[in-house]
Here is the input.
Amino acid sequence: MAEVAARRPPSRLRRAANAYVSAHGRALVGALGRLYRTPLASLMTAAVLGVALALPAGFLLLLANLQGVTAGWEADARLSVFLKTDVAPDRYRALAATLEQDPDIAAATLITPEQALEELRAVSGMQDALALLDSNPLPAVLLVQPAAGADPEAAAALAERLEALPDADLVQLDQAWLQRLASVVELARRGTLVIAAMLGIAVILVVGNTIRMAIESRREELVIIKLLGGTDAFIRRPFLYEGCWYGLLGGVLALLLVETALLLLRGPATALAASYGSALLVQGLGMDGVAWLLAAGVVLGLAGSRLAVGRHLRAIEPR
Amino acid sequence: MIRFDSVSKRYPNGYEALRGINLHIRRGEMVFITGHSGAGKSTLLRLIPLLERPSNGQVLVAGLNLVRLRRGLIPQLRRRIGMIFQDYRLLHDRTVYDNVALPLVIAGVSPLEIGRRVRAALDKVGLLDRERVYPVTLSGGEQQRVGIARAEVSRPPILVADEPTGNLDPALSWEIMQLFRDFQRVGVTVVIASHDIGLIERLGQRVITLERGRLVDDIPAEAA
Ligand SMILES: Nc1ncnc2c1ncn2[C@@H]1O[C@H](COP(=O)(O)OP(=O)(O)OP(=O)(O)O)[C@@H](O)[C@H]1O
Ligand SMILES: [Mg+2]
Here is the structure.
């Protein structure tokens, strides 16, 4: 049975499919061959694309790392509960003990007015001025650490609850600067995306211009192909693949640039983290990142060549 | 096979290169178009593969009405017409083999079949041993034979040649014309523009004469 099937000549459909695949394969390989024949020019173009792709990729990676680090810090959020100055020592000690039992709270540390004054003396170097005071103007402060795993909202809710305590005067969420940092990071991320979009346009234009020149330099050949009955698709195809190759090469170069930069930064970053007592893991592009980078290169390369092909091939008509 | 019905061609600059041409070329005919320089020979040939569109009248080629032919179907038309040029129009950065293979590559013929057909075409023009060389290393006559092989390799029903022997000496011209005769004998319709009256007369085929864009004479082939 199988033998009979094998001996039968391939069907029309099969032949058409083979022709289609071989036409595309030929264009794909041919386009790579053309890049290879002018290695310096091709490499220059690819390098421009590589830098243009590496910049936003590198920035986004940097921001992702930054966010990773600050996410660790969010758990460290602390609340400072300033008590009213007229609260008696046994009352604030009792309050500290109660809070210590609260399920939303990991730890509550008491700073008595005396301790606070001591600290102020030690740091400010204004002993003389402080000596003029006849009574301690400082309130007792409770440093409250939210329970592990509390997100910013939970911390804010806790702050509100503590503020409602009759003895509490003011609750300060030490997270404010963290939130500010987060919004700065977010701003930087948006800025990077805007720059990425602009660089993406630059990539499209660079590929478009390169393909335009390739079309110009092969004008004679394209005219002859048209004379011999080449379809628009046949003529377009090698240039589209050429654009894809440029994009892919640019993506690979961008990958190398980002990974090299990462390699150079990993040492100092780890040292810095160690000085903060944390084992910082510098996060690389990862499989997803690599796939995105290469895909972005190919898509932009294709877009650039489409632009050039659409604009310039129609102008080529046999004389 | 080819039919012109009161065809006129006016170029964008207003010059009327062809006026009211009526012409019928049957399948398997060999026809010469002759006339003084500027008479409109090239213009007439260029209408056949739609390198130029007529300003007026109808052109029918291999059953296709060219006036109504969509742009997307032009490649189909051109694949049915082998074109040969005075200046050969070969690709100089490709070997003889690759030049001749080009129409088959364009048509999506399988690589195995391409090899077979290219060698057959080169054999016919006597250049089988030159398939690996580049066109620049060939003489004018040899380059023209490569051009003919390229036009013929996809076995189109029509061959159109514009002054194919314009640059060749009489002996070579005669050889080239014999090649066209061979194609005609196997049923190919051959249309050749030439002003080599002596050569044309010796071949004894149908001769159409143009004068300032008008068809002024149509001498049928000598009965063989
Ligand atoms: N693209 C064009 N635009 C304007 N005028 C043209 C164009 N092509 C040809 N012509 C004019 O049309 C006329 C006929 O030209 P054509 O090339 O058909 O002549 P021909 O018979 O082939 O001449 P030759 O023997 O010199 O090749 C000429 O006067 C020429 O100047
Ligand atoms: Mg001419």
Observations:
- The radius of gyration of chain B is 17 Å.
- Residues B 41-42, 162 surround magnesium ion (ligand 2) (CB under 6 Å).
